[in-house]
Each structure stands twice: as C-alpha cells, then as structure tokens.
Amino acid sequence: MWRVRFCLLTGFASLAAVALFVARSDAAPETIRLIAPGVWFREGDMEQGHCNNVIIEMKDYLVVIDANYPSGARGAMADCKRLSPKPVKYVFDTHHHGDHIYGNALWTQAGSTTIAFPGVAAEMKRFEPARWLAAVKSRPDVAELHRDAPEPPKQDISEPQYVLNDGQRKIEFLHFGWAHTRGDGFAYLPKEEVLCTGDAVVNGPHNATMDANIGNWPTVLRAAEKLKVKSVLPGHGVPGSRELITGQEQFMVELYKAVKAGVDQGKPVEDLQASVSLPVSVSNWVAEASLKRQIKDAYDEIKQGKPRGDLPQ
Per-domain residue ranges for the chain? Predict the structure, then answer.
C-alpha cells in the first residue's frame, strides 16, 4: 500500500487560501484536507490512476464519495479509520468508470453499501466486463481481486434526488442528466454549501469524453449552478469555488461551438484537431493530447446526431 501523507487543514479559514486553479506542482496526492467540520477531501494520486474521494461524517457512520480503484480504495479505507472510529455505511459511485467504481467489492466486503443512480449499472452492463478485463492486464490492484467483472452498485437510487438526513447532517444525492456519463451523480451538503461532482466537474485537463453527452454537459452544469455552493470537490484535481462549475461549463460550450463550426464548414476531423484553439479563459481544462481526443468525440457526436456515449467505442 502506498504511504499516505496527511495534511489536515483545519477550519473554513483554510478554504480562503485554496485558489480556484492550482498548479500541478502544488497538488498533494494521497493527502487529506478538512473542507468543513466532518467533511474531508482526499486527493487521489493521478499517477496511480486514482480519483479523489470525499469522506463525510454523519452522526453514527461515514459516507464516502466514490469507490476508487482497488488500491485507492484501500488507501481511503485506511484514512477513514484514522479520521473516525465510525464505520463506512455508504459509498456513493458518481459514475461507472473504473477509477471511480472498481473498488466496490472491497467496500462491500468491509460492510458498506454501494449506491448510485441507475445509469451507472446500465452503463456497466454495456461496457463490462471488457473494460475490467483490459484493466486486469495493466493494473495489479485490479488483477489481484481475481474477479471476472467489476461489482455493480448494490443499491440503485431510483429518483433524481435522494436524501440522507440524520439530524446532524444532510446529504442530497442529485442527478441532473447526462454529462460526463449517463449516470452522473452529485452529492450536495446544503448546510456546508459543499458540492461533490464526480467527473462532471474536474479541475484541470482531465475531461474524458468517450461516454459523454457533450452537447448536454453545459445544461447539467447549469442545473448544478442553481445550488448554493461555496466549495466544489471535483473528481480529479484540487478543490475550488463555485467558479469551477462555470469554468467547466464554458470549456464544454467552447469545445462544442468550435467543432460545430468546423463541421458546418465541411472540415474533416483531422483539420479541426490541427486548428482548433480554445479561448484562454478555459485553458485550465486544455492539454494538447486530451483536446485532440475531445475534438474527435465532439465531431463524432455532431456528425452522427447522437451523444458520443451512444456511439460505438
């Protein structure tokens, strides 16, 4: 297990020092920071493929946002035990990608219930076990589970809003539609004004669009923007303020607009990949390699008239 370094930042005062955009050299993988009393952000090690986790303390138990890869899950479990003697009752899978869900079996073996919106299990039925078997070949932490397929969430959230409220803390699990994936889920703490976004919002050039509805993504984020939010805890990258949502939204708007203009002019995708340049205002989300893939996915979505996630992989 990778050694976990702790960086416990106390109180809301620490949030004032958290800039919206932080250089990658300022990131601190596998560390914990306190976002609000009883709410911790665990930054994932992207070199290991890990997503971020959020640990939320309820009166008698903990809730964890995202199962992570198995190695990330083990690290998050160890951190939960250091932070609180309370058991992890629920693990909320924000979407179906392996870096957020392949650790499910470890959590349920430890007594937790994994929960998600129905689109998560539906997408797993489409893409698994092929993606799992590919991960077995490249990731020892997946291979050592000796499973033929990933474990789906144990419990579906059948309505677009599900609330946990034990009198001490309230968590709202929300589904606003198809953005990064068909099953995208958010976890919102209204009292603390904290929003956990999964990969519907990321801080940095970490947007994977192969299962996305790129044209609808801004619509989902506009719904999230209606919430009263001070702290945004993304699926990848460091925490930010609510401007992180508007920045992610604008990136998707600019990406789609630029590719649509090229399609309307009859340009081939290769020309767009060589020529599209997005505004500096969204540069936080842009990297050359990922932008080429995103342009191709947006191009396919526009040309086929279907969400990219509905097209052959």
Answer: 12-242
Task: Report how far Cα 139 is from the mean position of its chain's Cα atoms.
Answer: 20
Task: Name the amino acid, one letter, at 172.
Answer: E
Q: What is the CATH number of domain 12-242?
A: 3.60.15.10
What single string gives the DSSP state of each residue in 129-184?
Answer: THHHHHHHHH-HHHHTT--SSPPPPSEE--SSEEEEE-SS-EEEEE----SSSTT-
* pLDDT, one tens digit for every residue, the chain (313 residues): 333 333 443 333 333 333 344 444 457 888 999 999 999 999 999 999 999 999 999 999 999 999 999 999 999 999 999 999 999 999 999 999 999 999 999 999 999 999 999 999 999 999 999 999 999 999 999 999 999 999 999 999 999 999 999 999 999 999 999 999 999 999 999 999 999 999 999 999 999 999 999 999 999 999 999 999 999 999 999 999 999 999 999 999 999 999 999 999 999 999 999 999 999 999 999 999 999 999 999 999 999 999 999 999 9
Class of residue 58 by CB neighbours under 10 A (exposed 0-12, middle 13-18, buried 19+) = buried
